[in-house]
Structure formats: structure tokens, C-alpha cells
Amino acid sequence: MTDEAPFDVAIIGGGPGGYVAAIRAAQLGARVALVEKDHLGGACLHRGCIPTKALLRTAEALLESKHASTVGVAVNDATVDFAAMMAWKERAVAQQADELEKLIAWRKIAVFRGEGRLVGPDSIKVGDDLVAARKIIIATGSLPSRLSIPGANLPGVLTSDQILELDAMPESLVVIGAGVVGCEFASIFSALGARVTVLEILPRILPPVDEEIARRFQQILRSQGVTIHTKASLQEIRTEDDRLRLLFALGEEHQEVVADRVLLAVGHRPSSDALEAAGLALRDGSVTVNDRLETSVDNVYAAGDVLGLYMLAYVASYQGIIAAENALGGSRQADYRAVPTCVFTLPEIASVGLREEEARAQGVSYKVSRFPFSALARAQLLGQPLGLVKLICEDPSGRLLGVHSLGRRATDIIGEGVLALRMGATAQDLAHTMHGHPSLPEAIYEAAWGIIDSPFHLRRL
Ligand code: NAD
User: Fold this and answer.
1) What is the pLDDT of residue 242?
2) Strand pairing of 110-113 and 32-36?
3) pLDDT > 70: what percent of the chain?
4) Which atom of ligand 1 is nearest to the CA of 343?
5) Which residues of 371-403 are buried (b: 16+ CB within 10 A; e: fewer)?
6) pLDDT tens-digit readout, 54-110
7) Please, is 331 exposed, middle or buried when counting C-beta atoms within 10 Å of its C-beta (0-12, 13-18, 19+)?
8) How far apart are CA 70 and CA 371, in angstroms?
9) Do 152 and 174 meet the contact criterion of CB atoms below 8 Å apart?
10) Is 451 helix (H, G, I), strand (E, B) or coil?
11) Taking the model in full, what pTM does it have?
12) What are the residues whose beta carbons fall under 8 Å from the beta carbon of 59, sequence distance 6 or more?
């Protein structure tokens, strides 16, 4: 370790893991270097969370317009202007990206533009520069996986990065993989008017989501016109005129579907290609760390998707903060007891804690309470009150084990569940807490009453 190193902390990767680590280190008074080969903000800001939410906003506005007459607003034939939608998405990203650059400059974080290579436990090579630092944090993120089947590289077969750069609305789209990415794009493109088919290899969609919630969402997606095949094993993609023909097995049966575009949403892999050479221990391409985010090399920490653990922007930021604090003398441990899952579909899905099937498998004694949004005033006022909140609590203690929600703004209301779970709250704590009225989080409150007695605004139980 070189004590005279110009930086206290140098970070490779400026995504939500790396740039948040950089800000945390700067807050603590460190001299910080941030190395980024592309744009600050990473996949989240440029190819993930932010651009997809911009498209989701357009889809929501279109749906709103279709229901506007119900609330007294006359809208004639609302349609999507694809180019204007993509321009809105670009503006939304550019605005956030510009703000982030200013934030990083204001924090006096030195940014090195170029591909960073770890050449020792205290130095990173960036082009002709050698960035020396007392501690290093690796936050190089992940990349979309490709499939090794014939035709997977044909033009028109897109990754989740490429689909964000389309120049026209596909009439039909086949989505391979019904994980978070697949379901979000299927939902958005279907709402925007594309004919969407989803092929998922597993027997169910959305593996990280409570089975009942995923099943209810699947019914909604189907009612919106999306065709979903589970246990579908894609075998080949062929070109046919300007279109793509997909051959897949459904059990013993062989089936085909033809589409304009195909989205591969079959997972991400850690972006760790350049790291093995630096002597870091990797497992299946993921950097291995302990719960203090320390890698196998002294003074080198890692955070985010490159760990191959959760691959979520907010987990990356959480880990980045801990890595920065520990690099500067702290000893915080990462705690994954309350990691939210947020799926930005129409309607949204959000959850935290144990899924019911997990509670069952673990032999935990539990009680379930469900409260439908159709019985909630605010959800009715917002229109389309689909979905529910489902609480899983330990029985008889009432300790909260899991919160699962499907419905409008589910990703916002889950915040209460995440905090409650993290604080070890019980159904009684939730039921004895005042909730603003009329508001969507009242669904959690009503469901909590369902655990300790019965909900107030529900006749059918
Ligand atoms: P994923 O691993 O969540 O889902 C991939 C899906 O594809 C799985 O259901 C899998 O069974 C299926 N699959 C794999 N091979 C297949 C095949 N040959 N044929 C059909 N189906 C196949 O991956 P993802 O959805 O691509 O997302 C990548 C990462 O990004 C995930 O970690 C995800 O959590 C994260 N992400 C999160 C958000 C969010 O939090 N809202 C949004 C986007 C992405």
C-alpha cells in the first residue's frame, strides 16, 4: 500500500454502486477517484431503471387517456408518437445524467474517463494514466446474457439495451424470459400497442415474486392480450422475409411464433472479465466478498451487480455505501433481510421478505391476510383498482415475515413494508399506526387488521 497515494479511494465503475460509493467516501472527507468507461450513472440511468420508467410513463399516460372520459376528460383517439416517446426518454435520461455529472463535480470527485484495469491492490490503469489509491472499490456491474441457440445473434434479436434504441414500434414482439426485465418490457410494449408473446423456460413467470402474486399478474397480463407460454424451451430463431420465426418446444409439442422483433431477457452476467488477472477470487464470474464487502485481495472492496447476488440498482448503492465506509475504517456488515423487489409493470408488483411458498417450505407457523385494492377508496379514485396487498405474519406473534403487493404504485407503498420488516414490526404495530386517508398504503394497514382481527372496509372475507 502506498501511503503517499494521491487518492484515499478509487472506484472502478460509475453506476449506482460506484458513484454512490464515491459520494459516500467524499462525504467522509476522502480524496476520491471514479473511473468510468462510458457515462456516469451506469446501466440503471442509461439502459435500465430510468429509460424504462420513461417508457412506462408513456404507457401509463396512454392508458389514462383511455379511461379519461370516466372522470370527465374528453380525449379523442389518443395514439403513441413513437419518435416523440423516444425523445422524451432521451430527455429524461439526459436530465438525470447532467445532474449526476454536476453532483460528482460538486463533491470534488476526480473522474477518469476510460476503461479501468486493476493492475495491483492499489492501482488502476486508465489509458495512459495510473490511478493510485490506498483503497479500491470494484463496481463494474453486469451485462445482458445472450443465448447460445441458433439465430440468437440475428438482426432484430435484441438485448434489453438494444430495445431501448428502436426507431419504430414493432407490431409484434416475442420476449424470451419472464423475469423482471421480460415482464416489464412485455407489459410496456403491450400497453403501447404491440402484439406480445412471452416464452419462459420455467413452469412459472417472475421467479423472485410470491407465487400467488405472480399467478394473479399473469392473469392480468393475459387479459391485456399478452400470450404467455411457460415451460417453453426456445430452440432456434430463423429469419423469414423481414420477420423472425421462433421454434420452441412446449413439452412434447413443437410450436412456432413469428414476430418483428425478439427481446432476450434471460438474465445478466457479472462484468468481471478484466478482474481475474488482478488475482481476485471469482465464483462463476462473480467477485466473491465477505459481508463487509472485502474481496480476496487486501484493500480491495466490491459492490453491485459484479457480486452476482441481487443485481438491483438499490442493492448496489447500499453495498457501495458500506464498501466506502469500510474502506475508510468502518466495519459495517451488509444486511439482506429486507431487500425489496420492485417490478415496474402495469400494474406494478413489489414485495419484501418471505414469499408464502418459502414460509411453507421452512415450516414456519404463519397467517396470511389479503386486502384488495378494489375495496380501497384511493385506489378506486385513481381508476383500475386491480390487485391486492398480501401480508404474511408469524403466528401467533404477528411478526411480519413478508409483504407482497400487486397494484398501482405498489413499488411506492412497499417502502412501509421494507422498513417494518427491517425493524422487526408486527401486524399490531402496522394496525396501530395511523395512515393518511385516502391513500394507497392504507391497504397495508387494512391487511394488518386482517391479521389481528378483520379489515374495516371489506364485507367478503
Ligand atoms: P432474471 O434472471 O430475473 O430473469 C430471466 C428469466 O429468463 C428467468 O425467468 C429465466 O427462467 C428465463 N430464461 C432463462 N433462459 C431462458 C430460455 N432459454 N428460454 C426462456 N426463458 C429463459 O433476468 P432479467 O429479467 O434479464 O433481469 C436481469 C437482472 O436485472 C435481474 O437481476 C433483475 O432483477 C435486474 N433488473 C431489475 C429490475 C427492477 O428491479 N425493476 C428491472 C430490470 C432488471
Assistant:
1) 87
2) parallel
3) 99
4) 41
5) bbbebbebbeebebbbbbbbbbbbeeebbbbbb
6) 999 999 999 999 999 999 999 988 999 999 999 999 999 999 999 999 999 999 999
7) exposed
8) 25
9) no
10) helix
11) 0.95
12) 187, 188, 191, 192, 346
Expressed in angstroms and rounded, the spacing between residue 299 Cα and the centre of ligand 1 is: 33
CA distances from 38 to 22, 324, 338, 363 (A): 16, 22, 32, 48
Mean pLDDT confidence for 140-166: 95
Say what the pLDDT of residue 254 is: 96
Paired sense of beta strands 227-229 and 195-199, if any: parallel
Give SS3 for 189: helix
Please give the average per-residue pLDDT across 125-139, as a whole number. 96
pLDDT at 461: 59
Place of cell 449526476: 100
C-alpha cell read off for 347: 400494474
- What share of the chain in percent tops pLDDT 90? 92
Grid coordinates in use for 361? 417450505
- Cα 245 to averaged position of ligand 1 atoms, centre (Å): 22
Residue 321 Cβ inside 6 Å of ligand 1? The answer reads: no
Amino acid 1: pLDDT:
44
Taking the CB of residue 332, how many other CB atoms lie within 10 A of it?
A: 14
Tell me how far apart the 2 most distant CA atoms of the chain are, in Å. 71
CB 428 within 8 A of CB 400: no
pLDDT, mean over the chain: 96
CA distance 388 to 392: 13
pLDDT in tens, 281-300: 899 999 999 999 999 999 99
Q: Which amino acid is present at 437?
A: H
Written as nine digits, the cell of 66 is 383511455
Probe ligand 1: pick from 158, 160, 266, 411, max atoms within 8 Å of CB?
A: 266
Respond yes or no: is residue 437 known to be catalytic.
yes
